[in-house]
Amino acid sequence: MIDRRLKVRHLQAFVEIARQKSLKRAAEILNLTQPAISKTLKELEQITGVTLLERSRGGVAMTIEGDVFLRYANSSLTAIDQAMTSVSAISKGEEGRVAVGALPSVAARMLPRAVELFARLAPNATPLIEDGPHGFLVDRLRAGRLDLVIGRLGKPDTMKDISFTQLYAEDVVIVCAPGHPLAGARALADIGRYPVIYPPQEAAIRPLVDRMMIANGVGDFPQRIESVSATFGRGLTLGGDALWIISTGVVADDIAAGRLIALPIKTELTAGPIGIMARAEDDLSPLAQMFRQAAIRAVGDLGLS
Protein backbone atom coordinates (compact mmCIF):
# COMPACT_ATOMS: atom_id res chain seq x y z
CA MET A 1 0.00 0.00 0.00
CA ILE A 2 1.30 3.47 -0.92
CA ASP A 3 2.26 5.64 2.05
CA ARG A 4 -0.04 8.67 2.02
CA ARG A 5 2.86 10.89 3.00
CA LEU A 6 4.50 10.26 -0.37
CA LYS A 7 3.95 13.19 -2.76
CA VAL A 8 4.87 13.90 -6.37
CA ARG A 9 7.34 16.57 -5.16
CA HIS A 10 9.33 13.87 -3.35
CA LEU A 11 9.68 11.88 -6.58
CA GLN A 12 10.53 14.95 -8.66
CA ALA A 13 13.23 16.07 -6.22
CA PHE A 14 14.78 12.61 -5.93
CA VAL A 15 14.84 12.01 -9.70
CA GLU A 16 16.40 15.41 -10.37
CA ILE A 17 19.05 14.94 -7.67
CA ALA A 18 19.93 11.56 -9.17
CA ARG A 19 20.07 13.09 -12.65
CA GLN A 20 22.27 16.04 -11.63
CA LYS A 21 24.29 14.15 -9.00
CA SER A 22 24.13 17.34 -6.97
CA LEU A 23 21.59 18.77 -4.51
CA LYS A 24 22.62 22.31 -5.46
CA ARG A 25 22.10 21.88 -9.22
CA ALA A 26 18.85 19.99 -8.69
CA ALA A 27 17.57 22.77 -6.44
CA GLU A 28 18.36 25.38 -9.09
CA ILE A 29 16.52 23.43 -11.80
CA LEU A 30 13.45 22.92 -9.58
CA ASN A 31 13.53 26.55 -8.37
CA LEU A 32 14.04 25.47 -4.77
CA THR A 33 16.51 26.50 -2.11
CA GLN A 34 19.16 23.96 -1.13
CA PRO A 35 17.73 23.61 2.41
CA ALA A 36 14.27 22.96 0.91
CA ILE A 37 15.46 20.18 -1.42
CA SER A 38 17.52 18.64 1.39
CA LYS A 39 14.42 18.61 3.57
CA THR A 40 12.39 16.98 0.78
CA LEU A 41 15.01 14.25 0.35
CA LYS A 42 15.12 13.68 4.12
CA GLU A 43 11.32 13.31 4.18
CA LEU A 44 11.49 10.77 1.35
CA GLU A 45 14.11 8.70 3.16
CA GLN A 46 12.00 8.78 6.31
CA ILE A 47 8.99 7.55 4.33
CA THR A 48 10.93 4.73 2.64
CA GLY A 49 12.89 3.89 5.77
CA VAL A 50 16.19 3.57 3.88
CA THR A 51 19.08 5.76 2.78
CA LEU A 52 18.64 6.50 -0.91
CA LEU A 53 21.66 8.75 -1.51
CA GLU A 54 25.10 9.01 0.08
CA ARG A 55 26.22 12.65 0.45
CA SER A 56 29.82 13.81 0.22
CA ARG A 57 31.77 16.92 -0.70
CA GLY A 58 31.98 15.63 -4.24
CA GLY A 59 28.21 15.39 -4.56
CA VAL A 60 25.84 12.47 -4.10
CA ALA A 61 26.04 8.77 -4.92
CA MET A 62 23.17 6.34 -5.25
CA THR A 63 22.81 3.49 -2.79
CA ILE A 64 21.55 0.08 -3.91
CA GLU A 65 18.14 0.98 -2.49
CA GLY A 66 18.31 4.29 -4.30
CA ASP A 67 18.96 2.58 -7.64
CA VAL A 68 15.88 0.42 -7.20
CA PHE A 69 13.69 3.32 -6.10
CA LEU A 70 14.88 5.53 -8.98
CA ARG A 71 13.67 3.07 -11.60
CA TYR A 72 10.14 3.09 -10.22
CA ALA A 73 10.17 6.82 -9.46
CA ASN A 74 10.99 7.56 -13.10
CA SER A 75 8.20 5.23 -14.31
CA SER A 76 5.72 6.82 -11.90
CA LEU A 77 6.48 10.36 -13.03
CA THR A 78 6.23 9.31 -16.68
CA ALA A 79 2.85 7.68 -16.03
CA ILE A 80 1.55 10.76 -14.24
CA ASP A 81 2.74 13.01 -17.06
CA GLN A 82 1.08 10.79 -19.66
CA ALA A 83 -2.14 10.74 -17.65
CA MET A 84 -2.24 14.52 -17.43
CA THR A 85 -1.44 14.90 -21.11
CA SER A 86 -4.15 12.43 -22.11
CA VAL A 87 -6.80 14.04 -19.91
CA SER A 88 -5.88 17.44 -21.30
CA ALA A 89 -6.09 16.10 -24.85
CA ILE A 90 -9.58 14.74 -24.21
CA SER A 91 -10.82 17.98 -22.66
CA LYS A 92 -9.40 20.03 -25.54
CA GLY A 93 -10.82 17.74 -28.22
CA GLU A 94 -7.44 16.60 -29.51
CA GLU A 95 -7.15 16.66 -33.28
CA GLY A 96 -4.83 14.60 -35.43
CA ARG A 97 -4.40 11.06 -36.63
CA VAL A 98 -3.53 7.77 -34.99
CA ALA A 99 -2.34 4.93 -37.22
CA VAL A 100 -3.27 1.45 -36.02
CA GLY A 101 -2.38 -1.88 -37.59
CA ALA A 102 -4.54 -4.93 -36.90
CA LEU A 103 -4.27 -8.57 -37.79
CA PRO A 104 -7.36 -9.89 -39.62
CA SER A 105 -8.86 -11.57 -36.53
CA VAL A 106 -8.68 -8.30 -34.61
CA ALA A 107 -9.92 -6.20 -37.53
CA ALA A 108 -13.02 -8.37 -37.86
CA ARG A 109 -13.87 -8.90 -34.21
CA MET A 110 -12.62 -6.35 -31.68
CA LEU A 111 -11.43 -3.36 -33.67
CA PRO A 112 -14.85 -1.97 -34.74
CA ARG A 113 -15.86 -1.62 -31.08
CA ALA A 114 -12.49 -0.05 -30.21
CA VAL A 115 -12.95 2.54 -32.96
CA GLU A 116 -16.43 3.38 -31.63
CA LEU A 117 -15.07 3.93 -28.13
CA PHE A 118 -12.12 5.94 -29.45
CA ALA A 119 -14.53 8.26 -31.28
CA ARG A 120 -16.11 9.13 -27.93
CA LEU A 121 -12.73 9.90 -26.36
CA ALA A 122 -11.37 11.86 -29.34
CA PRO A 123 -14.24 12.96 -31.59
CA ASN A 124 -11.99 15.32 -33.56
CA ALA A 125 -9.28 12.75 -34.30
CA THR A 126 -9.00 10.45 -37.30
CA PRO A 127 -8.05 6.79 -36.84
CA LEU A 128 -6.17 5.25 -39.78
CA ILE A 129 -6.65 1.48 -39.79
CA GLU A 130 -4.48 -1.00 -41.71
CA ASP A 131 -4.74 -4.78 -41.67
CA GLY A 132 -2.30 -7.38 -42.86
CA PRO A 133 0.06 -10.14 -41.74
CA HIS A 134 2.10 -9.86 -38.55
CA GLY A 135 5.50 -9.25 -40.12
CA PHE A 136 4.25 -6.53 -42.45
CA LEU A 137 2.51 -4.61 -39.66
CA VAL A 138 5.35 -4.91 -37.16
CA ASP A 139 7.82 -3.66 -39.77
CA ARG A 140 5.60 -0.61 -40.32
CA LEU A 141 5.35 -0.09 -36.57
CA ARG A 142 9.11 -0.27 -36.18
CA ALA A 143 9.53 2.23 -39.05
CA GLY A 144 7.18 4.70 -37.34
CA ARG A 145 4.41 4.40 -39.94
CA LEU A 146 2.06 2.89 -37.36
CA ASP A 147 1.55 4.01 -33.77
CA LEU A 148 0.14 0.70 -32.54
CA VAL A 149 -0.41 -2.84 -33.79
CA ILE A 150 -3.05 -5.12 -32.30
CA GLY A 151 -2.69 -8.83 -32.93
CA ARG A 152 -1.00 -12.07 -31.98
CA LEU A 153 2.31 -12.18 -30.19
CA GLY A 154 4.91 -13.00 -32.82
CA LYS A 155 8.01 -15.17 -32.70
CA PRO A 156 10.85 -13.74 -30.55
CA ASP A 157 12.93 -12.65 -33.55
CA THR A 158 10.03 -10.50 -34.83
CA MET A 159 9.46 -8.75 -31.48
CA LYS A 160 12.83 -7.06 -31.01
CA ASP A 161 12.36 -3.55 -29.58
CA ILE A 162 8.58 -4.07 -29.52
CA SER A 163 6.53 -4.04 -26.31
CA PHE A 164 3.50 -6.32 -25.97
CA THR A 165 0.51 -5.95 -23.63
CA GLN A 166 -1.82 -8.95 -23.67
CA LEU A 167 -5.55 -8.32 -24.08
CA TYR A 168 -7.01 -11.82 -24.48
CA ALA A 169 -6.26 -15.27 -25.88
CA GLU A 170 -7.54 -16.74 -29.13
CA ASP A 171 -7.28 -20.08 -30.93
CA VAL A 172 -7.64 -21.26 -34.51
CA VAL A 173 -10.74 -22.84 -36.00
CA ILE A 174 -11.32 -24.94 -39.13
CA VAL A 175 -14.45 -23.87 -41.00
CA CYS A 176 -16.44 -24.94 -44.03
CA ALA A 177 -19.68 -24.02 -45.76
CA PRO A 178 -22.98 -25.41 -44.44
CA GLY A 179 -23.75 -28.76 -46.05
CA HIS A 180 -20.08 -29.61 -46.64
CA PRO A 181 -19.45 -33.41 -46.56
CA LEU A 182 -16.99 -32.90 -43.68
CA ALA A 183 -19.22 -30.63 -41.59
CA GLY A 184 -19.11 -33.11 -38.69
CA ALA A 185 -15.56 -34.39 -39.16
CA ARG A 186 -13.49 -34.80 -35.99
CA ALA A 187 -10.18 -35.99 -37.49
CA LEU A 188 -7.64 -33.56 -38.96
CA ALA A 189 -6.48 -36.13 -41.50
CA ASP A 190 -9.92 -36.10 -43.14
CA ILE A 191 -9.66 -32.49 -44.32
CA GLY A 192 -6.83 -33.35 -46.75
CA ARG A 193 -9.37 -34.76 -49.19
CA TYR A 194 -10.49 -31.21 -50.04
CA PRO A 195 -8.80 -27.87 -50.81
CA VAL A 196 -7.37 -26.36 -47.59
CA ILE A 197 -6.69 -22.66 -47.05
CA TYR A 198 -3.59 -22.68 -44.84
CA PRO A 199 -1.78 -19.76 -43.12
CA PRO A 200 1.40 -18.74 -45.00
CA GLN A 201 4.86 -18.58 -43.45
CA GLU A 202 4.59 -14.92 -42.42
CA ALA A 203 1.31 -15.42 -40.56
CA ALA A 204 1.54 -15.28 -36.76
CA ILE A 205 -0.61 -18.42 -36.46
CA ARG A 206 1.52 -20.51 -38.86
CA PRO A 207 3.87 -22.02 -36.23
CA LEU A 208 0.91 -22.91 -34.02
CA VAL A 209 -1.00 -24.57 -36.86
CA ASP A 210 2.13 -26.46 -37.91
CA ARG A 211 2.55 -27.67 -34.33
CA MET A 212 -1.05 -28.88 -34.24
CA MET A 213 -0.56 -30.82 -37.48
CA ILE A 214 2.64 -32.44 -36.25
CA ALA A 215 1.02 -33.37 -32.93
CA ASN A 216 -1.78 -35.10 -34.83
CA GLY A 217 0.52 -36.85 -37.29
CA VAL A 218 -0.85 -34.92 -40.28
CA GLY A 219 1.48 -34.21 -43.19
CA ASP A 220 1.17 -31.76 -46.06
CA PHE A 221 -2.16 -31.29 -47.84
CA PRO A 222 -2.22 -32.09 -51.59
CA GLN A 223 -4.60 -29.19 -52.34
CA ARG A 224 -3.13 -26.53 -50.04
CA ILE A 225 -3.67 -22.85 -50.75
CA GLU A 226 -1.79 -20.33 -48.58
CA SER A 227 -3.42 -16.99 -47.81
CA VAL A 228 -4.14 -14.54 -44.98
CA SER A 229 -6.81 -12.70 -46.95
CA ALA A 230 -10.12 -12.83 -45.08
CA THR A 231 -11.98 -11.77 -48.23
CA PHE A 232 -10.42 -14.53 -50.32
CA GLY A 233 -10.81 -17.17 -47.60
CA ARG A 234 -14.44 -16.34 -47.01
CA GLY A 235 -15.23 -16.25 -50.74
CA LEU A 236 -13.57 -19.57 -51.54
CA THR A 237 -15.04 -21.36 -48.53
CA LEU A 238 -18.59 -20.09 -49.03
CA GLY A 239 -18.53 -20.70 -52.76
CA GLY A 240 -17.10 -24.22 -52.86
CA ASP A 241 -15.80 -27.22 -50.95
CA ALA A 242 -12.65 -25.66 -49.45
CA LEU A 243 -11.84 -25.83 -45.73
CA TRP A 244 -10.31 -22.78 -44.06
CA ILE A 245 -7.85 -22.82 -41.14
CA ILE A 246 -8.11 -19.36 -39.60
CA SER A 247 -8.11 -17.42 -36.32
CA THR A 248 -11.47 -17.60 -34.58
CA GLY A 249 -11.92 -13.84 -34.56
CA VAL A 250 -11.92 -13.62 -38.35
CA VAL A 251 -14.97 -15.88 -38.71
CA ALA A 252 -16.74 -15.48 -35.36
CA ASP A 253 -19.61 -13.50 -36.91
CA ASP A 254 -19.92 -15.96 -39.82
CA ILE A 255 -20.17 -18.89 -37.42
CA ALA A 256 -22.71 -17.09 -35.22
CA ALA A 257 -24.85 -16.27 -38.29
CA GLY A 258 -24.63 -19.81 -39.66
CA ARG A 259 -22.81 -18.77 -42.83
CA LEU A 260 -19.86 -20.99 -41.89
CA ILE A 261 -19.61 -24.09 -39.71
CA ALA A 262 -16.72 -24.86 -37.37
CA LEU A 263 -15.52 -28.45 -37.52
CA PRO A 264 -15.61 -30.19 -34.11
CA ILE A 265 -11.83 -30.68 -34.16
CA LYS A 266 -9.78 -29.87 -31.07
CA THR A 267 -7.46 -26.93 -31.71
CA GLU A 268 -6.24 -26.02 -28.19
CA LEU A 269 -2.61 -26.21 -29.33
CA THR A 270 -3.16 -23.11 -31.45
CA ALA A 271 -4.28 -20.85 -28.59
CA GLY A 272 -2.15 -17.72 -28.32
CA PRO A 273 -2.17 -14.21 -26.84
CA ILE A 274 -3.67 -11.21 -28.64
CA GLY A 275 -2.34 -7.87 -27.51
CA ILE A 276 -1.21 -4.32 -28.21
CA MET A 277 2.25 -3.78 -29.69
CA ALA A 278 4.18 -0.51 -29.61
CA ARG A 279 7.78 0.61 -30.06
CA ALA A 280 9.44 -0.25 -26.75
CA GLU A 281 11.44 2.95 -26.32
CA ASP A 282 8.80 5.45 -27.48
CA ASP A 283 6.30 7.34 -25.36
CA LEU A 284 2.86 6.96 -26.88
CA SER A 285 1.20 10.10 -28.18
CA PRO A 286 -1.99 11.22 -26.38
CA LEU A 287 -4.10 9.87 -29.25
CA ALA A 288 -2.29 6.52 -29.23
CA GLN A 289 -2.80 6.29 -25.47
CA MET A 290 -6.51 6.96 -25.93
CA PHE A 291 -6.80 4.30 -28.64
CA ARG A 292 -5.01 1.85 -26.36
CA GLN A 293 -7.56 2.53 -23.61
CA ALA A 294 -10.40 2.15 -26.14
CA ALA A 295 -9.02 -1.26 -27.19
CA ILE A 296 -8.80 -2.44 -23.58
CA ARG A 297 -12.39 -1.34 -22.94
CA ALA A 298 -13.57 -2.99 -26.17
CA VAL A 299 -12.16 -6.33 -25.02
CA GLY A 300 -14.17 -6.02 -21.80
CA ASP A 301 -17.34 -4.96 -23.62
CA LEU A 302 -17.14 -7.97 -25.93
CA GLY A 303 -16.39 -10.41 -23.12
CA LEU A 304 -13.09 -11.51 -24.68
CA SER A 305 -10.87 -11.16 -21.62
From TrEMBL:
Q: Which residues form the HTH lysR-type domain?
A: 6-63
Which terms does the record give in the GO molecular function aspect?
DNA binding; DNA-binding transcription factor activity
Name of a matching Pfam family = HTH_1
Query: An example Gene Ontology cellular component term from the record?
Result: cytosol
Which UniProt key words apply to this protein?
DNA-binding, Transcription, Transcription regulation
A single GO BP term for this record reads: 3,4-dihydroxybenzoate catabolic process
* SUPFAM superfamilies for this protein: Periplasmic binding protein-like II, Winged helix' DNA-binding domain
Q: Key word Transcription present in the record?
A: yes
Regarding protein family, the annotation reads: Belongs to the LysR transcriptional regulatory family.
Q: What is this protein called?
A: HTH-type transcriptional regulator GbpR
What species is this protein from? Roseovarius gaetbuli
State which gene encodes it: gbpR
